[in-house]
Amino acid sequence: MSSTRESAAAADVRAAARRGDLTGPTAGLATGFTQANLVVLPRDDAFDFLRFCVRNPRPCPVLEVTDPGSTEPAQTAPGADLRTDLPRYRVWRDGEAAGEPTDVREHWRADLVAFLIGCSFTFERALLADEIPVRHIELGLNVPMYRTAIECAPAGRFAGPMVVSMRPMTPAQAVRATQITTRYPSVHGAPVHVGDPGAIGIADLARPDYGEAVPVHDGEIPVFWACGVTPQAVAAASRPALMITHAPGHMFVTDMPDARLAAL
Amino acid sequence: MSSTRESAAAADVRAAARRGDLTGPTAGLATGFTQANLVVLPRDDAFDFLRFCVRNPRPCPVLEVTDPGSTEPAQTAPGADLRTDLPRYRVWRDGEAAGEPTDVREHWRADLVAFLIGCSFTFERALLADEIPVRHIELGLNVPMYRTAIECAPAGRFAGPMVVSMRPMTPAQAVRATQITTRYPSVHGAPVHVGDPGAIGIADLARPDYGEAVPVHDGEIPVFWACGVTPQAVAAASRPALMITHAPGHMFVTDMPDARLAAL
Predict the structure, then answer these.
(1) CATH among 1.20.1250.20, 2.60.120.10, 3.40.190.120, 3.40.1640.10 for B8-119+231-259
(2) Which CATH code fits A8-119+238-261?
(3) pTM for the whole thing?
(4) For chain A, what is the mean pLDDT?
C-alpha cells in the first residue's frame, strides 16, 4: 500500500523484531506508520470473532484479516511475517496467558487466522499535531483503561463489556478532539462518552482496570474512547484453546501511512 | 436502533411485503430509512465472503451480518424476518438464477448467513438534498452499472472485478458530490473514479453491463462509485450451491435512519 522507500522505517522495525534485535515496545518507532493490535485465533473461532468485530467497529476496527494459515498481512504490510515481525507476543491457552515469546513460529498452525485491529497511536499523533495535550504521554505513562457497563453486541461465543481509554481535556479541547478523531474511524473514531464516568459504569477514575491512572485537573473533563483492549479481553474471556496476541505495547508496525486512515 | 414511532414507515413496508401486498421495487418507499442489498450464503462460504467484504469496503460495505441460521437482522431492524420481509427475492443454484419468489421460507436452512450491504439510495438522497442532479432519477431509469478492470482483493473462493455505477455531473458538481458521499462510507463512500471510462476498463458508456444508459451532456464528466452489485456478482461467479439475494430494486428496508450512516 506504499512504496518501499516510504515504508523503509516500518520494514526496518519489523526486520529488527524478526532478527531478535528489537524486543521492547514500539511506541515512537517508525513515526507516521500505522501500528496495529494483533489477535490470532483458530479458524473455528475466527468467523464468530470477525462478526463480533463487524458488529462492534468502535472498539474493534479491523484493519486486516488474513486467510486461514497465511502469515502475511498482504494488504497492510506485504511480505511481512506475523509469526516473527512483532517484538513480543503473548500466547494464551484456554484463555490464560501462557508466555510472552519474541517469536511464535513454534505455535503457528495451518488453521490460524490473524486480525490486525486499529490502535489509538494513530489518533494520538493527530491530536498532538494540533497541540491537543495527551496527559499520559506528557507523564510518560500507559493510557488508563476501564471496563464499562456498555455491553458489546455479541457474536457466537464472543461477548463482553466495552473497554475504554480515557484522556482528560478542557471542554473546548474535547470538542476539537472529537472533530479530529472522527476523521479516523478505523482507529476507534470519535469518543464514546464525555464526562461522568459513573454514567458508563466506571466507579473510580483513579483505579483503571488496565494501564495507569492520570490526574484530571480542575476545568477538565474525562473523554473516553473505545479501546483495542476490548477484542483481546473478549476473546480471552471466551477461553479459546489457543490465542496469540501482541504483548501490551509491542505492536505490529504496518507499511500504511497514518494519513491513509483519515476518512476525510 | 430507532423508536417504533420513527420507524413505523419502514416496518409498514416490511409488513406489506410479508403479507404479499407489496411485490414491487422499494425505491421511494419509507423515505429517510436505509435500504440494503441482501446476500445469503451457507455458513461454509460465509466466512470467506465476510473476509471479502472487509477487504473491499467500497463495493461491499457491510451494514449487518446475521448469526448462522438467524432470520433476524437484530441491529438494523429488530423483529424483522429476512425470509419474508423483502418484496421479491432471487434464488441462485450453482451460480445461476433459479427463480424470483416473494418469500424464501421454503429455501431457508439452519446454516444460512445473511449479509445486508449498503445501497446507493442513501447517498443519492443526500445528493438530491443539496440539489445535485442525479440523471437516471431525472429520467426514471435504472442507474447504469459497469464491470471494470479494477480487481477486488480476493478472499477464499470469492474474487472478481469491481462493478461501478455512473452519474454524469459538471466538474463542480463532482467535487461537491465527492464531499457529500465521503460522509457515507457505509453506502460506498466517495467516488472510485472520475472522467475517462477507459482508464478503469470501461469500453463504452452507452453499453452498461447492468441497468440502463444515460446521456452525458457537454461540460459533464462521468463520476463512478463502487456498486453493491459487486458482491452479488462475485458471489454468483463462485457458484455456491445455494445463494439468496434480493431481486434487483427490491431491497430490504431497515429501521435505520439514513442520517445515522453519516460519518460526520
Answers:
(1) 3.40.1640.10
(2) 3.40.1640.10
(3) 0.91
(4) 94
